[in-house]
């Protein structure tokens, strides 16, 4: 199997990507960064986009707050830099990439197996929705996300995760954008709630009005973020550095037979598209791509049995992420609230909760049910040294 590329070492690809709107707003946690190091592509190690702590605040009277520190920092890098950088490294090692329309039947005739990693007009037909794993038929949040200047970092530098029950969520974290160091802001608005307007408000026609509205919402719903804003410096890094829209979470059937009897396998967003509420999209894509690569390296035949077996292994990784993401889109059950209350009073629990962003199965084990949550809290408080 091979890919083809115009041999420009990624230069024109970088320019084209930088000229477009953001692809996503991601945080790559330690397991993902370790895979980058193993491949020799850990090119984004600078501390200016590191996530050395995660602060969680739940709105209320009084609000619930805690800050935890992961064992190793996460990193947030603009995929308009990240993906072209990987492509350039790939071509430098002799790989070939073709940028253009996708003809899956033609690819199937030329290759032993086709891997589809991102959405396209052909994906819904090739990989239909799996209703058993897709509980939502419409978006659960409206989204507004962009890269901004004029926001001071936290100390220690990290991500702020603001939860406003019934209203939505607001995230702020240091970010390496195409325009340089910045802060990423993402608003997840419950449809019909007071945050939804910013997800539909045009920015190009009145940037100052957009920014005033955004600052007012931060002051009302995420005052800890608003307090770090310098109004004289605040603004989008570039007019194009903004995304607004909505995602319907979906899991698709993971493989399909092509016309010639060969197969296409879905991975990444072509297979599982979760709401970004828990920041796991890039991490899950990395994890499942490695599982698929290991299965491919084990050798053919790449038949229906291969597809069925590899997707069963991939779902073991994807299921806790998907169920955790979907659960966070719903009102929290009492045991989840209790866990957060304990974290606000016990730094050991705060650190363990934050570390679980790097270990989704452990996070889902801690949140999925009252008994499992109680057992997780007991383990943490028994084994972790007291502060």
The CATH class designation of the largest domain is: Alpha Beta
Helix content: 25-40%
Give the overall shape, derived from the CA principal axes. globular
* Helix count, DSSP H or I runs of 4 or more residues: 14
Which structural class matches the secondary elements? Answer: alpha+beta
Instruction: List how many beta strands DSSP finds.
Output: 15
Q: How large is the share of residues in beta strands?
A: 15-25%
CATH superfamily of the largest domain: FAD/NAD(P)-binding domain
Low-confidence parts, pLDDT < 50 over ≥5 residues? 1-10
Count of the domains:
3
Oligomeric form = single chain
CATH level 3 topology of the largest domain: FAD/NAD(P)-binding domain
The appropriate CATH architecture of the largest domain is 3-Layer(bba) Sandwich
Major sheet summary line: 8 strands, mixed
List SSEs in N-to-C order: HHEEEEHHEHEEEEHHHEEEEEEHHHHHH
